[in-house]
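Sequence in, structure out. First:
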Amino acid sequence: MDNSTDSKNIWDSVQKTIGILLYIISAAMIAFSVYLCFSPDIWYDELFSIEFAIRPVPEMVNLTAADVHPPLYYIIVHYAIEIGSRIARAVGFTGGLGSEFGTMYLQVLSAKLSCVVPYVILFIYGITCIRKRHGLLAGGLFSAAMIAMPNLAEYTVEIRMYSWLILFVTAMCIHTKPFITGDVNGRMVRGLDIKKAFPVFIYGLLACYTQYYAAIAVASVYAFLVVYSIRKNVWQLGIVFIIMNLTFICYLPWISVVFSQAGTVSENYWILPLTWRSLGGIAKYLLLSSFTNVMVGYVFVGLLLVMILLAVFLGRKNVYMWFLFAPITGIVIAGFVASILIRPVFVYRYMMPGMGAFWYGIIMVLFSDKKSVATGKDDKSAIDENSAAKADGDKKNAFGGILTLAVPLFAIVMSVVIIRDFWAFRGNELYKRVNMAETGRLFTELKAEDDLAIITNFDHVNGLISYYLNQSGKEIPVYLYGAQPEALIEKMIKGVSQIEKATEIRQLIENGKHVIFLGSFNSREDIVADWESNYGILNENKGSYLMERYWFDVFDLSLAD
């Protein structure tokens, strides 16, 4: 046995070992995400998700029609909360903040757990379909990358639709493989088994009903399939048109809502304009890891960028790789065009539906041990041809040797990025969890008081405090000082109100109310100073508290003698 055979056997063994370790790491990350779900901290966007989800489905659909997202994600969370609540009642579980917060805690817990489910499904894809197609190393990297490549980990517990978007679009792309490769000899296939096309249709439709940028990703997939079918396999064009038109027909009920939302949102939208620097921002969002030392993070950005360029070079004739890039490419192009021609409508996290397929494409080309990089076929003849060509290349030129070293190096680079990003996410979530326990004790004290009135100066804190304190029992008024609460929050959450003048606060105290001010930002000091000097409202700072990502100081208000 020669040295090259020995080296290949060693590398094959290393690949399998790394792949198995990555499966174990992926399972551990999912398990830890489940553990993190047992904390009641949410932020303002998650508050909307919860409030939509706890309503009857018809009312929920009407509310989402007035918001900026389709209803499917909220329906998923609705039933997750219903199932979670029934299980909790059966076992007598009330949650970490006590029985008086039981309803709120169970809503948050169930909703967070529902966000972990897509990663479990993607893990199953990684250990079955991806492993069979591309081997243990690619399967392990796929499973881990879906959870914790840059900016992905936080959505394992955040009550937003992004984890489901990653699942729907990535799974759609996985099931589209038969459209791209043809039969084992590369010939045109006369038609395609409807059983193979059905998952593509289902996942695409689910994505469309979950987020509009996911609908753009789905449109990009179908556009690619149409062009590819016309050029390479006209016999499958019929079934492509069937599932594409079925998707459009099934989406018709929501299209009128899309146009009405466009008019509503344009009146009050927060997204900033795009510039040329936004292209750099896209790269950072995709590649910048959460290293403590920023320069180390940029070193890994450079390594990941080299890895991507190498994958693109090696897979330049691999149609399936370009197909896997289509969703994120379509999202970015559509976002930029709409932002330039109409108004700013694109932020970096909207790339999320296409990010899973993007990383799958890179992993497939660089780390697969069961396919031809040049053609994208994964049949036995292609494997044999590619193995022979690669062995010949290893002997005849330096590039083969460089590639042999580069593949394990980049497997290590991706693994380090995945572990580091999840570790940073873990630390951030545990920090919030510890602080939220202290904030929970504050909520318990406030809930027990009679004749309490709360003043806030930040609408996010206003809505969240009202949610935490007013799920059950007596209603505690939570006033937003000097501003108008968001209309949907006023409509959905008990206790939310507005107070415009300091004289009204003074009147509350004179009427026997115990008034506290939950002050946010540096302006809180100016506000209490103004109240004291101009209105005789004294204050005592009782300390600072963190509610998910919102710091606020607690001021006990009283009147000067």
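Second:
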Amino acid sequence: MTAIPESRPQSVVAGSSDATALLDIVITSLRDVLDQLRIDPHANFFALGGNSLLAVRVAGRLSRALGHRIPATAVLDHPTAQALADHLAAMAPEPAAPGIRAATDTVDTTRTPRYPLSAAQRRVWLLHDVDPDRLDHLVTVSFEVTGDYDPIVARTAWHRVAERHEALRTRFEPPAEGSEEPFQVVESEPLTEFTFLDTVRFPEAVRTRVVEERIHLLHRTPLSLRSGPLSRVALLRTAPSRYRLELIVHHIICDGWSLAILLEDFLDAYRRVAAGEPGPGPSQYRFADHVHWERETESARWPALADRVTRRFRDRPETLPLPADPVPVDEHADGDDVSVPLTAGLGAALARAGGEGGHTRLTVALAALAVLLRRISGADDLVVAVPVAGRVRPEDEGTVGLFVNTALVRLRLAGVRDVRTLVARAREEVAEVLDCQTYPFDQLVSRLGLPRDGTRMPLARVSLAVQDFAESPGPGPALGFQWVEHDPAERQSKLDLAFSLTGGGSGAEGQSLTVTYRPSLFRRPTVRAWAEQYLLALDNVTRAVTGGVS
């Protein structure tokens, strides 16, 4: 996770005629986000590795520097520094631009250990309140660790991570009498759990069973929001130089981006502890600051966004007619997934779709999903859920917490006769998603008058996630150990089908497609066939937008 530099672009007055200063600000923001020493004013953002998430980060820095909100679509639609600077010079600032402060300003937040929930956290709280035993809110990661790994150092390192990040010292309390607001409490001491079990002394058959049962129990034991802890780490020694490392964190304090921060900080803390060095100290980024900003500033945009989003989905189709084959399944075990690797050629084509066609991976992936859903359902009016990072301010990039929100796209395929038209419609929807990404999904559900169901996501049966944030690089050679991640299968799914493109960032290597599904509705061979058909559609779409044969 790239650290946020202390020196930000110099603030300028909106509407300044100093074109050189404005270009310098744009170049500095791009260089900061793209991690480039030099940026040619005419270099293409996508060719430099840009994507929709990085566009949001660039826009956040520009907003902070210029003192008014810059939409991420400005970066995507003007993909060179010169074109973007020219556009910013000509555009009129949004009125008043509530809450966007210059680089020298700070949000005045009292360091209180008790504060309200963010909109994203409140959504999880409501679902958890309906079903406290739900398992789909457990963020789980598993590693096979080999080499010179010290359990005592690992325990100390994890506690340092918990001391550093307030999220790992947080628990939640219900509304006080006469109030409807739950709140979160940050404890002064680490509120986390670390257990170690050495199974080497057991016979091999017993050892295997103990490890499997222990991991199964870890993954299927809910975390209590009220008492905590909301994170647990289990280390199991399975051989003299081999371990199984399990990390489980509740989603209300952690999203995928946060997980990358925690793993990176854990490796840094492990190195420091092993070397006898002090820890880096508490993080300067606090989730309480985000909650304060959301309530005091960003929420001023929500009424206008509410009208805009509601108009788009008020006349939506009632459901997507997917061909199901129902079987009885326990609702807390109604989740599984299928993973298929992308070929190197398809990964490279996706990268070219940005550099040559100016399309984000999300745009191309969404167009391909529309092809598949049209083929298997026959519907030409598609509603798809899209998780969005929700980190629109530079300081959010280093904060551990739940920022991710759910947005909706609506693809109308009537009249679409070629791939390029389809991609153009998908691009329009992605622009809407980026501009409305902070509007709380549960508020849209309420405005549309839909009932809440703790086991299913309302409004959409299918979702698409494109992971564009950087993954943890893993242990370096100096640490003396290596790990390999094991991605556990989903235990419970809120969606009927959830498509996720992960790995490789915007590059060509190591990308894969995972489709999470409900075994109560679909058979595994059917879902695997759909996954393979989706990759064929993705290949055809990328060929079309890069000048190949569609």
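Remark: The first strand starts at residue 114 and ends at 116.
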